[in-house]
Amino acid sequence: MNNIDTMSVNAIRVLSADAIQKAKSGHPGLPLGCASVAYELWAKHLKHNPKDPDWKDRDRFILSGGHGSMLLYSLLHLFGYGDLKKEDLMQFRQWGSLTPGHPEYRHTVGVEATTGPLGAGMGMAVGMAIAERHMASVFNKEGYPVVDHYTYALGGDGCMMEGISSEAFSLAGTLKLSKLIIFYDSNRISIEGSTDIAFTENVQKRMEAFGFQTITVEDGNNLEEIGKAIEAAKADTERPSFITVKTQIGFGCPAKQGKASAHGEPLGDDNIKAMKENLGWPSEEPFFVPEEVYAHYKEIVEGLQPAEDAWNKMFAEYCEKYPEMKELWDTYYDEDLAEKVCDDADFWAYDDKADATRNLSGKMINRIKDRMPNVIGGAADLSPSTKTYMKDEGDFSAENYAGRNMHFGVRELAMTAIGNGIMLHGGLRAFVSTFFVFSDYTKPMARLSSIMGVPLTFVFTHDSIGVGEDGPTHEPIEQLAMWRAMPNFHMFRPADATETAAAWYSAVTSKRTPTALALTRQNLPQIEGTSREALKGGYIVQDSKKAVPDAIIIASGSELSLAVEAKKVLAEDGIDVRVVSMPCMDIFEEQSEEYKAKVLPKNVRKRVAVEALSGFGWDRYVGLDGDMIGMNRFGASAPYSKLFPYFGFTVENVVARVKAL
Amino acid sequence: MNNIDTMSVNAIRVLSADAIQKAKSGHPGLPLGCASVAYELWAKHLKHNPKDPDWKDRDRFILSGGHGSMLLYSLLHLFGYGDLKKEDLMQFRQWGSLTPGHPEYRHTVGVEATTGPLGAGMGMAVGMAIAERHMASVFNKEGYPVVDHYTYALGGDGCMMEGISSEAFSLAGTLKLSKLIIFYDSNRISIEGSTDIAFTENVQKRMEAFGFQTITVEDGNNLEEIGKAIEAAKADTERPSFITVKTQIGFGCPAKQGKASAHGEPLGDDNIKAMKENLGWPSEEPFFVPEEVYAHYKEIVEGLQPAEDAWNKMFAEYCEKYPEMKELWDTYYDEDLAEKVCDDADFWAYDDKADATRNLSGKMINRIKDRMPNVIGGAADLSPSTKTYMKDEGDFSAENYAGRNMHFGVRELAMTAIGNGIMLHGGLRAFVSTFFVFSDYTKPMARLSSIMGVPLTFVFTHDSIGVGEDGPTHEPIEQLAMWRAMPNFHMFRPADATETAAAWYSAVTSKRTPTALALTRQNLPQIEGTSREALKGGYIVQDSKKAVPDAIIIASGSELSLAVEAKKVLAEDGIDVRVVSMPCMDIFEEQSEEYKAKVLPKNVRKRVAVEALSGFGWDRYVGLDGDMIGMNRFGASAPYSKLFPYFGFTVENVVARVKAL
């Protein structure tokens, strides 16, 4: 390890420690422990170009242990990404800075994914590696490997303890994603102390069981050893690789290294002084980096340019030789594709007969897959039930990366992270699917979709007590409220074919917001009055004859037909009601106050909402004077034709509750 | 395998197939495939007594693949548990029957846990095995192993794909839970087809990596081989055991066995006929079981009695010899313990100074642990931050099963399942802990706590944007709404020491409802007017002078102090407001209409709620005429002293919003 390499590694340590100290908040343990690994990878192996962070064939690097964000920010600064200045590092964790506590996608140039919840980056990395293989199989031609890059992720013991990493890695092994390379920062320290208290498993053996090549770097500061490990990982073209790097948490800081206290608090001024001395750093001044170190990084960056130049040249030739592929490429990367191809009459067409919205959704998926070749997706081992299979598009597998039907296995959480990763890669739109009640499992990663602004689509079927015989463990109750409460998430519950088409249209045209569809298992009638107005989230489906209705019934999904039938019965008694469909509260809330007041006039207080799930949140529309027919308990196991009447989801009850007001 | 054994195994298959056929709904694949394993275990190895299903030292059996419920119901019927009749099997999946679609705890005698969400049973089994070791270490005396039993769980590929099983088994291996024995029903079939499409990992190698003994039964219908495997599992006193049983899904049904279609739909009348022929079953009549088979099961059950008789004798001697242990035993099993010991002045005492509710909660935990020796718990590697460590109580580990501090590792989902399992075992009360934002990870298993009526306690700290620098991935927004929407769950957000004590009192005295505490990272002042009235969920903390207040401000947790300060400022302007604290909406909703109307009179419509999380759900109290100061977006990374004012959580803003009404 020559001196300039040592200095360059230590610059990462110094900047990280100083930034965390200045912020009086942060996690120095990982940046100090992993500085060598990160430097060796970024300086000598990673295919990237700080001058063009969006280069489509760049290698991806995800810091799964997002709390070690200063490692990433130090790298981005030293490599000159997005002109991230020393001043930005000085603003670490401060209001409005480019250096928030955990790395944030779309916020800081060079950050490939928002991380923080442990294990998330591992799942997203698997998704990125899947996207790479799929895109490669679609686009590469003999002599033109236009998609050909690695995905690297770095995480620690916490990432390996979280179940999501087992889920994701088991699938990665099955799929033989040999261009996926994982660094395991093994420092044997967790927040509560030695990992021995909770984590004595043989991690490498587990990874071998998943089908990974495993490699160990005994000295996490030996650049040569690290470099050889990376080369060995690349050399295996059959298996993904897992590189265990034995590190010391907080390396370089004598009082802290190897201790749990190095993990999540500033080192302290004295300890930083001692660290700089220990590392032979030339100055005590905070954030000082010698000019020769900056010059060295600059030289590295200059050396990275030719690879992209060569790729650009190859890509230009490819485009000329295969103009149809160039066109397809542009189609894949066209953010406005859905608007262009999903708005014809066939897209919105339907048969006027009773059908389950899960079936109708299945039809929409098959219309969309023909219009949008870049759509890929699947279910957590439930596609025959969630109706998410794309006909004639093949199965994505180690033998057929061109397949568009993903088989995620019974792994809802990893599935969602993988969906995020596929979309983060670029070029593809993904959907994932499971039963609505199991959307609970997807929550931590769906939250990341929302935070990152990744418009992943969730197909959640079996959306109420309509599940019937499977009983309470399979009947969603509180799930609609859970999703409606989350920012930047569109939770749709369509009532029939037209609204299902609208939900899908909204999903595939969304640029920055994930969309979920809650769909029925049971058949529903087509409703008179449903329309593309559903894209406003809530709208009048059948209005009163009077300008001011006697009452308003609001419903979604399977209960909209009850509302419509109740209106008829009430009309016979001279009560003139308006029926409002509310397929997506989130989008309705985004409408103008005028529109909302038009649909739900302030002066009409006799309002009844009906939805066969928790009423929590409906008070926003029924207020203190209205009424709500919902579920305030868990469901039960019986045919749904028994459950709906028992729990009050009947025309008679809707009529009675309106009259009671 | 002699004839009566064969007949007895096939009786399970026939009853399962017939019940599912009659219900026109259900999952025959597992019951047919696993009938031999279940029979061998229950008939010849399991320590149990159908005549006393509550025998405290019985072995536990959890059907983790809960969709195979007919396997369990057939066993319970044949062994005579709770007098489960043939007629009950005929009512499989029907309204109000004892045989719902998935096994339900507290509903059917002999069901040890509600299962259905895959992997859940594995996590709960680990919890039960932990409870067994802890209770054994507390109670057993030389020659008196009063707690000494095995925990068995049976699950399939789905259970093994779910991340929760990796989390739970990694911990089980670390803890050397040698009395835990897992059956892996390896049939190589999943819903979407062969497991090869998503699950080619070496499962046994993974389990070895976790520290399990692994055993394979090549022929899942060879009772002798199964029996030997169970004996070998018991013989290992250092490691938990994992028995892979190679089975055929839907075994016995010629048209279905080995096929995905055997999994989740009735076999069909013709196929059942063919199955009965194939198995040499003496009658085609549905639900027919020969008398000799019933007689055989009766004989088995009679043979189970002496073991419990012997235990009862030993236990009586133990109680006589160690009267103090008998007293302690009764304390552990006293459901009313908390009411008796947690209501003294010291329990409610506090220092009148600003403090974070996480710290105050930590004090309460340490008061409770001295009063309730049966409390055990810990965090997902965050106890220094969540303040959940019980002083001087030691760490639960393979070397010290008497320790009361659990180290769950970074495994929130398994932690929750384990918490459920500990409580299902009986004798212990458990708490689990993580950051509030990561409560997302616990959701699927917390839902089971609520469905089962298991009063697990959740300590969720860092409960708002008050988290500050860690940023949006660590700042809960929608989590309060998510938990409030779930039935049978008490979500507390206390405002100060008194309310924190109330939240804990509510948690430990709860018999059938889990409780969560959302607690601050930052210091809060003690509020004048808080009291044990907090146990009503919502109450008047500072009232208006007028009988009818000009307005009502409602708040919880860290925002209650804003409400109280705003009241003072408004008073200066002659506006006389009432301040209502709402630490637990769920419990407030359980109060009488009179009480609720007293706190929030219908005629006072000028209401402002303030809570630094999503406003979703607050309309229940502010209605269409009120206002809500909440978070309708994700948070940001900055010191909380910057975030609170930016997002409007200031006295000035509360005052302004009240005035605006």
Automatic annotation (TrEMBL), chains A, B:
Listed CDD domains: TPP_PYR_DXS_TK_like, TPP_TK
Q: Which InterPro entries does this chain map to?
A: THDP-binding, Transketo_C/PFOR_II, Transketolase-like_C_2, Transketolase-like_Pyr-bd, Transketolase_bac-like, Transketolase_BS, Transketolase_CS, Transketolase_fam
Q: What does the record list as GO biological process?
A: pentose-phosphate shunt
Q: Into which EC class is this enzyme placed?
A: transferase
The positions annotated for binding Mg(2+) are 157, 187, 189
Could you tell me the EC number(s) of this protein? Answer: 2.2.1.1
| A Gene Ontology term for the protein's cellular component | cytosol
Keyword Magnesium found: yes
Q: What does this protein do?
A: Catalyzes the transfer of a two-carbon ketol group from a ketose donor to an aldose acceptor, via a covalent intermediate with the cofactor thiamine pyrophosphate.
Q: What is this protein called?
A: Transketolase
What organism does this protein naturally occur in?
Anthropogastromicrobium aceti
